[in-house]
Amino acid sequence: MAGATDTESGGAAQGVAGTVIVGAGLGGIRVAEGLRSNGYQAPVTLIGVEPHPPYDRPPLSKSVLVGKDDRVDLKPAEFYGESTIDLRLGRRVVAIDPEQHTVTVVAVDSPDDVHETIRYDTAVLATGLRPRLLPGVADDLAGLHVVRTIDDALTLRSELAAASTAVVIGAGFIGCEVAATLTGHDIAVTLVEPAPTPLAAALGTEIGALVGRLLSDNGVTVATGVGVTEVVDDGTRVTGVRLDDGRELQADLVVVGIGSVPVTEYLEGSGVELAPREAGGGIACDGHGLTSAADVYALGDVASWRDDDGVQRRVEHWNHTVDQAAVVAHRIAGGDPMTANVPYFWSDQFGLKIQMLGDPRPTDTVHIVDDDGRKFLAYYSRDGILTGVIGAGKVGAVMKTRPKLQAPTPIAELL
Ligand SMILES: Cc1cc2nc3c(=O)[nH]c(=O)nc-3n(C[C@H](O)[C@H](O)[C@H](O)COP(=O)(O)OP(=O)(O)OC[C@H]3O[C@@H](n4cnc5c(N)ncnc54)[C@H](O)[C@@H]3O)c2cc1C
Fold this sequence. Notes:
Helices cover 20% and strands 31% of the residues. It contains ten helices and 27 strands. It has helices at residues 26-37, 63-66, 78-82, 150-158, 173-183, 200-203, 205-217, 318-332, 395-400, 402-406; strands at 5-7, 19-22, 44-48, 85-89, 91-97, 102-107, 115-119, 122-125, 129-131, 144-145, 165-169, 188-193, 221-224, 228-233, 238-243, 248-250, 253-256, 260-262, 283-285, 296-298, 303-306, 312-314, 344-349, 352-358, 365-371, 376-382, 385-392. Strands 4-3-2-8-20 form a five-stranded parallel beta sheet. A five-stranded parallel beta sheet has the order 10-17-11-12-13, covered by helices on one side. Strands 23-24-27-26-25 form a five-stranded antiparallel beta sheet. The protein binds flavin-adenine dinucleotide. Flavin-adenine dinucleotide (FAD) binds next to helix 1, strand 3, strand 5, helix 8 and strand 23.
């Protein structure tokens, strides 16, 4: 049974509406699955604006771009019927009314803009991010790319064979991975980043420099401390970029990886509170995903949960979303609140798995304990206590640290 619905011309629909999940990505599907595995019997409706069933994003900058994978669906097609999850694709939620307990939905390809109202008992918001674009640059310029959706990745992939030069703007995780993947396609890649090293904001400059070394040693030209002032084109497609030090770089492809912004515009006027911009923005939640509106939860990249220190924090990592989905599903299905795991993320570059466990800040003290010029292992500490571990090609050593991050551990024990 689906959530109770009505078209806009009629009144509010009646009946038990169950849980309506907005956003059919990783967080959305994990909540839907978690509800069923926790014994939740009411209707579950999963609404997604993309035409594709929920798929995995990490492979987009890795195996999909390389050409190893075309489909990275998170569930087989039969899962939705077997689990009685009403999957509605190609539908954009444009509004939520917490008083009435309804969401308003439009079909993206509908010529007559018919609005549908769906009632919920509980709503879950998992609408993720959209890539930040360069100000003043037309986003439909041929040869200019971002990588957030599978369609983005397949479009970029289709242009790799004809390209010999590329500029990647922004050395965050996605920028670094795309630079690595394109280099593997025999494309001469320049990675442009205003910060002093790649990944400086996420990992600090000391570890960022080790990642920069990995990229340079494998053929990426890493241009740090410099910004892009202009994307140059010939009227039909990109031809290069101009830098703020006066240089102009030729490029058949330009990939923009300058971060993303939470997708929250459908909340305007709803009263659902957002986190302050200085805290990363996104939907403000308590420590277990409840927003400022009754019966409305949020999770994943779009959500800013309050941490144990009372600080709103938004995290853009796969495992974090999975952990939050488990907490939210458990909470809706009636269980006790669960506590999240130790934060974890990974990145794949040039055949090395870079992994981080814990929640260090870039200002924490870094202790590099192993570095053979390619693989490395480092700990982070604050006030003498271990806050994180990062390794490249050090899977066992990183994972062994997990128990030490679950309780306060003096860094001296590890050095
Ligand atoms: C290229 C790439 C590589 C990555 N690699 C890694 C990695 O190596 N390691 C790691 O830890 N993490 C990685 N991540 C991050 C990870 O994929 C995300 O943390 C995760 O996908 C977050 O899940 P989510 O459900 O919050 O958002 P998403 O997966 O983005 O899902 C949100 C969904 O909501 C839909 N939506 C948005 N607005 C609406 C609306 N109004 N109505 C209906 N639907 C809507 C969107 O279309 C989207 O499908 C990567 C991300 C990308 C893009």
